[in-house]
Amino acid sequence: MVPPQPDNPPPPEPPESPGLNPAPASSPDLGHTATERDQPAIEVTRLAPSPTGALHLGNARTFLINWALAKRHGWKVVLRIEDLDGPRVDPQASQQAIDTLGWLGLTWEGQPLYQSHDLAPYREVLARLYGLGAIYPCTCTRKEILNAQSAPHEDEHELRYPGTCRPEPGVDQAPITEAVLEDSATAWRVLVPEEPISYDDCLCGRQTFNLQKQVGDFVVASKMGLPAYQLAVVVDDARQGVTQVVRGDDLLGSACRQMFLYRLLGLTPVPTYTHLPLVLGPDGRRLAKRHGDTRIDTYRQRGIGVRRIIGMLARWSGICDGHEEMTAEEFAARFELDRLGRDPVTFTMEDEAWLLEGCLS
């Protein structure tokens, strides 16, 4: 299956700026360039937990559906630990996530890739983007960005950047150096044109976003030189040959940002995206600590078996109307994406009661 491509033609190449020599576009670590159109012989997907906390029922459902789709369609599965979120990363959560996924019955090929173990690939891509004149340093604080807003942004967690530090056209930037990359007061943003980007999501259908209007020039490297999520995902998906991305629909807009970076770097193929509805608490908000302890490890420690956990996830995934226990393999054999629906799932008190009955069985 050939992934759908954005409607828009590639943006014009920006003028070169001084600085580090950009990595060559044919770097083998970053997959294929735009001139190499051959589709990989096998589709590849990834399980990519972020070790900022233990996996809960909502996380587990997303990973289980991802794995089930891979089993049904013959995709290769790789595991990536996305541990670049600075102080929010729990040092013990990485191994805990690996153990939990294995306990659920999920499998993958090879050893996990830990993003934090090697920052060189991200630095090379930043140098390439700098050589294209596509990124610039930004010293704005969140408070300054908030004060510059003309109206509240629809996403309370992300403000539209108003372009305060955006360089004037034709003005050369100072060379990018290791010292600049590690400056605790400087982030790096990518120049985003004001034009729509569209793609076809396998579950959510046609999606169109105007990145400049909605988020502005977004961050590709945070302060202290760590790659931001949007850049790190593109670099690692390209390195691992990922062609199928399955994740929560809170990241629908992120796909357009990542497609934009794929185009800018000349990488193919752009992955096919499938964004799943989230699991919500009884109050209609995303499942989180405020709804109690829904961590998989907590249920496991209380003696609830894996078949019961997966049975709950199966009910939330359109496999069965009532409660029944099953294995991950049985889940994969019965799962159909078109039965999932687009509405979010609510974790009810009745669901919790059924899970806890497993303590007695």
Describe the 3D structure:
With 361 residues, the protein is an alpha/beta fold. It has 12 helices and 14 strands. The strands form 6 sheets. The protein has a 3-stranded parallel sheet with strand order 2-3-4, with helices on one face. Helix 1 links the parallel strand 2 (44-47) and strand 3. Helix 1 (57-73) crosses helix 10. The longest helix has 17 residues, at 57-73. The termini are far apart. Mean pLDDT is 84; it is low at 1-28, 33-37 and 150-156.
| Strands in their spatial order, largest beta sheet | 2-3-4
Count all strands and give the number.
Answer: 14
Span from first to last CA?
A: 44 Å
Q: Strand count, sense and closure of the main sheet?
A: 3 strands, parallel
- Class per helix and strand makeup: alpha/beta
Computed Rg: 21 Å
Approximate shape: elongated
Order of helices and strands: EEHEHEHEHHEEEHEHEHEEEHHHEH
Q: Spans of 5+ residues with little confidence (pLDDT < 50)?
A: 1-28, 33-37, 150-156
Helix content: 25-40%
Taking all residues together, what is the mean pLDDT? 84
- Please tally the helical runs, counting DSSP H or I stretches of 4 or more residues: 12
* Residue fraction in strands: 5-15%
